[in-house]
């Protein structure tokens, strides 16, 4: 698609991504998330956190509850996506409105349902817009799929077999072969290709990619899922899939730093038991919480993550701990509780996350924003 806008060319929000500067997206997300507490104040007002407890107006976490089970919210999103825009400025206004809708309403139930195997679900369409996935090619994907087994094929196949294997709905919809094809194609697509960032290394397969790929395959047709997954990995969290997972290790370091600031009592209790984020939270960080069920709640978390910045991953994990802080403090050995995080509750995690952001010093928050993609920030954290 031609990136030059003229008065005769009208665009819908679905086409916004072609005007989205991928290289500047992380900086844009930093600005968006810094302002998040001023966009829709209703959620933070319903969450109070102190050293002793969490008070949450459970029924008021989102205003969308009253009509979530109707078609009203779905139509609201579909109308917004189909609205015609005449300039890049209008497109960006539409994107910000989409983010605000996600903040205020969430997505309706059933947003992950695809009408057929080649049509994206509503959630899939929105994820592609938020991530800036503007290029897909069936012929290119088929070319990668038709190649021989990559050197990581056996590892991919073993990991694919284990992906969300206890989730029956996922297994009915996403086969092991789909996971293997997508990841094997990813390896071929990035062969000898340099990361488009300030990191001088090649993409390759690392353990955990299968869990990250799974939600994309659940909400998008396989080919579109491949491009959405590839965009997410390459532009949003390249250091998480660095051969030594340095981004995720830096994320664990940041989690420790933030927890000490936000909840010194809980932090001291964990460190007294020789527990750091590297021990109890690394899987959650690396997978963007995809290692914790249920999948439906994860999808809601990722809606928010893609709208306001993947760096919120770290604060999501802290929020999960804050929610069970009393149980952790009452455990002589809290590792038993942290070995398997409690089931995700997206509304609650998002609400707590928003309330925690103002408690984090700006210089630390900036590092959180940058740790997924900025090599210098990661080096400073891990030295």
From TrEMBL:
Domain of life the protein comes from: Eukaryota
Subcellular location: Cytoplasm, Cytoskeleton
SMART domains named among the record's database cross-references: TBC (SM00164)
The keyword S-adenosyl-L-methionine appears for this protein: no
A biological process from GO: negative regulation of mitotic cytokinesis
SUPFAM superfamilies xref list: Ypt/Rab-GAP domain of gyp1p
Family per record: Belongs to the BUB2 family.
PANTHER family the record matches: MITOTIC CHECK POINT PROTEIN BUB2, TBC1 DOMAIN FAMILY MEMBER GTPASE-ACTIVATING PROTEIN
Name of the protein in question: TBC-domain-containing protein
Organism from which the protein derives: Neocallimastix californiae
